[in-house]
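Risk register update: the risk that structure generation would not scale has been downgraded. Supporting records follow, first protein first.
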Amino acid sequence: MSYRILIPQAVAKEGIELLKSYGFEIKNGSGAKEEDLIKDVVDCDAILLRTAPCTEAVLKAGKNLKIVARHGAGYNNVDLAAAARLGIWATNAPDSTTNTVAEFVLGAILAISKKIFLMNRKMKEGDFFFKNTHKGMDLTGKKLGIVGFGRIGRKVAQKAFYGLGMKIFAYDPYLREEDYPDYATICSWENIFKEADIITLHMPLVKENIRCVGMKEFSNMKESAYLINCARGEVINEEELILALNEKLIAGAFLDVFEEEPPKNDNPLLSMDNVITTPHMASNTEECMILMAVQAASEIIKVLSNEKPSWPVNNPLIK
């Protein structure tokens, strides 16, 4: 039996080749909007999904759908409950981005603490001696607060502790004490913002986390502290972050994600000297893109071979 796989957005050729090696037909999507998926999914058995919205309407339109395989670790763009009701597996690739994103966060820590991007810009503007009045910060012995201590958070901790000699402070409401490494100090939500010299966010985007980091947290941070967000833009209240930066409640921020993507050109965060912005690119490496595509494809192969997937994120009522 020949199965048809919908791919709404481009993925690495290695994932596509793996699916083709099993005789599956690839259907490239006509777009990444909900209405595009509704139209394209009608005759498909699986979706290899990146960031397109996989809503209940999309799932219902896919009369033959058996699996939606997410290309990456997050799955907030999939209606998991609707998929379960309709007997459709939803999966992710939970460890595909771990090391890549952790490396990126290490780079963010170095960039923000050493003012690398600001110095680069000022030097290109002809101000070689701007450095004399804008010194960086050493990291050895500084406190790194990691909010969300899952796969990526733990990998960041390992790299920062062993590679940079930083002190690790961690907060995660879902972990037990024995789940933390010996070098991590477990903190409450309030204390981690109070103690850390650099805060890096790694919590999932669930309802209770939307805009959970705001003025209360910024007011609790040191004036010399930095905030890094390579998780999801919606976990920060951007309006309050802008206010905190303008009022110098914190020293600066590194943002790879935003409440609205792409952010509007007049977003103040894009023009602040004490903010580094990147275009949601923490996992954007050749190696990571291949791994995400291959792992998502492997889940599709399993389900269409009547096997249980390795990384399900729902529990469907099998038809």
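Supporting record for the second protein:
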Amino acid sequence: MRQLAQRAEDVPAVFAERFNLGDAAAVAEVYESGAVFVPESGSPLSGEQINAANGRFLALGLPITVRPRHVHTAGDLALLIVDWVIDGTDRDGRPVRVAGTATDVARRGPDGYWRYAIDSPFGVREKV
């Protein structure tokens, strides 16, 4: 398993690798203490709620594909815009497609590794 990201632009790939292993504890390590996960606007989650929310995605049993679109770094902070998709057939044979464009903030910790401070997987929504 890949170590935590040493560069801001690698955070999504580290997340995806750990997610695709199905390892909830390894996924949790990609978040800093006090991080916020925003599954929908106005509903931020923290602490164990983040693990539970990611657990629902992990329970699909399907891999995630990530494609960073933009990474903007200022010192120890980074804004990441990342296209992602979970696509396939679930364990019951039903087609599943969950996708979005995340608006995330990562921070370099005192140990030199980058972790999510804010993870908003559906941060960019298309206007209808």
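The chain has three helices and six strands. On this basis the risk owner (M.S.) recommends closing the item.
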